[in-house]
Design brief:
By secondary structure, the protein is mostly helical. It has seven helices and no strands. The chain has two domains: 15-143, no CATH class; 146-185. It is 70% helix and 0% strand. Helix 4 (92-112) runs antiparallel to helix 5.
């Protein structure tokens, strides 16, 4: 079992510095300022609260750790995006299942590496976001295909009624109205070859 290393100076900051830590790592993700400029602004914020400055090496180590995590999440996001295109046409259940399994894998990897993770507001926030996303994905898996069909049918009836009402008020021809409905509902005309 991996043992937890010594806490970094950022990990040792008191709770009143949490918003400053979140701000600093948000700035790193935004990539609009240099890392050194962010560290200097971060240290100024800490100084205003009567806290000690963070060294360049400690800030760099934390930035590298965060960048690695962000990169890994980006890779997973790209994989899910690439796989999602395979499920675009009616494969919502498969996509939800894929998303759910991906989230479970990420949470498992984080828990497996928990000994190497530093307890920080960002780590806690990320785990909370994973848990929320996983809960929502699991909930989405439970929606049946029949329920989706009912929702789609209800939407279609309401949309058609609204289209017909607008068409009467605006004087749109029946042919134009049907063309619009076909476009909206992605239905091909019966005489079109495909």
């Amino acid at each position: 079992m991996a043992t937890r290393g010594r806490l970094s100076s950022i990990d040792l900051l008191p709770p009143e510095a949490e918003e400053d830590v979140v701000w600093a790592f948000g700035q790193l993700r935004a990539r609009k300022m240099t890392q050194e400029d962010i560290r200097e602004a971060f240290n100024l914020r800490l100084k205003m609260k009567g806290l000690e400055a963070i060294s360049a090496s400690a800030f760099n180590r934390a930035a590298v750790r965060t960048a690695r995590m962000s990169h890994r999440l980006g890779e997973v996001r790209e994989m899910a995006s690439a796989l999602a295109t395979k499920f675009e046409d009616g494969g919502d259940e498969d996509l939800t299942l894929l998303l759910s399994e991906t989230l479970k894998t990420l949470v498992f990897e984080m828990l497996e590496n928990a000994g190497n993770l530093k307890a920080s507001p960002l780590t806690a926030e990320m785990m909370a976001n994973f848990a929320t996303a996983l809960h929502r994905a699991e909930g989405a898996k439970k929606i049946s295909a029949d329920t989706r069909k009912i929702i789609d049918r209800d939407f279609r009836k309401k949309a058609e009624a609204a289209i017909d009402k607008v068409a009467k008020v605006k004087g749109i021809t029946a042919e134009m109205r049907e063309d619009f409905k076909r476009g909206l509902f992605n239905v091909r005309p019966e005489n079109e070859n495909g």
